[in-house]
Amino acid sequence: MVPTQTRILFARTPEGQLRPDDFAPETGLVGDPRAGELLCRNILLSIDPAARAWIQSRTYREQVLPGQVMPGFTLSEVIRSHDPRHPVGTIVLIDGGWQEYAVVPGSTARPITVRAPLTHHLSTLGLTGVTAWVGLHEVGRPRSGETMVVSAAAGATGNVAGQLGRAVGMRVVGIAGSDDKCTWLVNELGFDGAVNHRSPELRRELKALCPDGVDLYFDNVGGPLLDQLLTLLNARGRVVCCGAVSQYDTDSPAPGPRFVPGLVVTKRLRLEGFIVTDHEDTWARAEQEMAELIADGRLRVAEQVVDGLAGAPSALVGLLAGNNIGKQLVRIAPDPG
Amino acid sequence: MVPTQTRILFARTPEGQLRPDDFAPETGLVGDPRAGELLCRNILLSIDPAARAWIQSRTYREQVLPGQVMPGFTLSEVIRSHDPRHPVGTIVLIDGGWQEYAVVPGSTARPITVRAPLTHHLSTLGLTGVTAWVGLHEVGRPRSGETMVVSAAAGATGNVAGQLGRAVGMRVVGIAGSDDKCTWLVNELGFDGAVNHRSPELRRELKALCPDGVDLYFDNVGGPLLDQLLTLLNARGRVVCCGAVSQYDTDSPAPGPRFVPGLVVTKRLRLEGFIVTDHEDTWARAEQEMAELIADGRLRVAEQVVDGLAGAPSALVGLLAGNNIGKQLVRIAPDPG
């Protein structure tokens, strides 16, 4: 039994961009699991852009308020169990938060059948990759030969969405935040093209890379880029609304897309949002399919791991600033022996 | 054979709001139908808000340019035929335009089985009503017990959409442009409630009329109202993007909805546009179902008919200003004897 632990609190609501010192570490007690609960040792922490939205307002979860432990998905090892479905030693995906140990209801834990390096189960084979799979297949309904554009394409979800689009025979063009990322997308991940979203010629470059127009826009960023893409979409085009990260890290979001709903009507477009946790029934299929693509070398796992819980605030701030390539993880503890 | 006819040209691109003198009548020749073509006498002309969009820019049809005959759907009688599918005397729906006679390819004409007053086939049983049916059933996918809000609810499509929603057991709340229209929606058409979009208490009134939130927004107007509704929609709510009339009659459209895509993601919303002519396969079913509802007294036909082609420009301007209740038609010639 470990009596105390380090945890990181969300300390204050940022004015404008989030900063590392909007978080504060503290030493707290490790809770005692009650009936139906588990005590878990957190091993790996997922850093997600949505965290910026969670502290800004109520989303699909209650708003995170100053003074609360910062939430976040973790891969964790059950070390005491009052739920027979999750015996001691099981690896589970939980909302373990930014802390060394977490007590959670067993009903909220998802057991992981470890079949790859543990990190993969929090990146491409985890929530992030499944998000890309569900967004592409369940919402986007792709067809071979169509053209897809992905924003934040070098990010955790975007890189997977693009690679999955290639795997079903789409032409895939990425939008990313630096020339290096664009080169990586094309040379390493096999994208058909990529453009830097800071390019003054963005629209012309996109048109050149999408000679048949755009059928599907996998949107991770929202903002002015969405407007641009609405003008490039073909009739009956689809927008998979996966995230709006351009709007998260600010207290003064950009104006909305002025071509909504005008072009939505005239081009018969569909914009659709989704949350991966609504699609539990397809999780196993998505994971299986992606594991096979990884084994075939058709899906590359892209992830960055920061060592130590203390690095979590900087990792989130860096993620929002676009510093990462692939999935951003924090290692809280070593893999179980 | 009639050698000359009156027709109305789109004369100049309006600055700001459309005015009647942006159109000009002229006397022109009646064309000669060639192989495969029909000469038709136009009887009734449909006045549609989309006409404002057609002259502003390219939409799902080529932009209408100054000097061209103003296009528009008509119910017309075939008076000379070079297409055996449409013998002389047939009543057809065509893009006959703002003129007394039209020459059109037989392939573009839809024969009408007249089973109601001819006007009904251009209002509730015509394109307008079928638009409401397709939008509600094919795009909106309504369920009994859900709540629907309809904007421009006293308009040609809105009044039908609302009544069809009632027919499938939805709670239906209309938004309209005057207190008189609101009273008419509730007292005459059986809406569960209606609010004046000019009310300073619009949001509060909508919330009061929709105690279980809004599941489906049938949007005919776009603009700031769409933002309001996005905040009222329940998780997994749908927006049927049928029109954006608030954006048509202006050369300086309002900014876009700032909750797109933020709330689209967090609430898993679906915004989807459609054009009724994409759904030809469901036309007969929609017409049949609405004819039965009319016969049962569960669907009231709401239409206004202006007499004489010369009244078309004012009818369109009045429509855009929100003066009409129900479908706006222009009678060009008497019904065939």
Q: What is the N-to-C succession of helices and strands of chain A?
A: EEEHEEEEHEHEHEHEHEHEHEHE
**Average of pLDDT of chain A:** 94
Radius of gyration of chain A: 20 Å
Q: Largest interface here, residues on each chain?
A: A-B, 38 and 38 residues
Give the oligomeric state: homodimer
What is the helix tally of chain A?
9
Low-confidence spans of chain A: none
Gross geometry of chain A:
globular
Major β-sheet profile of chain A: 7 strands, mixed
State the secondary-structure class of chain A.
alpha/beta
> How far apart lie the N and C ends of chain A?
18 Å
Number of β-strand runs of chain A? 15
Instruction: Tell me what portion of residues of chain A adopts beta-strand conformation.
Output: 25-35%
Roughly what percent helix of chain A?
25-40%
Structural write-up:
- Two copies of one chain form a homodimer.
- Chain A is of the alpha/beta class and 337 residues long.
- Chain A is 26% helix and 26% strand.
- Chain A is built from nine helices and 15 strands.
- Chain A has helices at 50-56, 127-140, 156-167, 179-187, 202-209, 224-232, 262-266, 280-295, 312-320; strands at residues 4-10, 23-29, 37-47, 74-81, 91-94, 101-105, 110-111, 147-150, 171-176, 193-196, 214-219, 233-241, 270-273, 303-307, 327-331.
- In chain A, strands 3, 4, 5, 6, 7, 14 and 15 form a seven-stranded mixed β-sheet that branches.
- In chain A, strand 14, helix 9 and strand 15 form a beta-alpha-beta unit.
- In chain A, helix 2 (127-140) packs across helix 8 (280-295).
- The longest helix of chain A has 16 residues, at 280-295.
- In chain A, 53% of the residues are buried.
- The A-B interface holds A 53, 59-60, 219, 222, 226-227, 235, 239, 241-244, 247, 253-275, 278 and B 53, 59-60, 219, 222, 226-227, 235, 239, 241-244, 247, 253-275, 278.
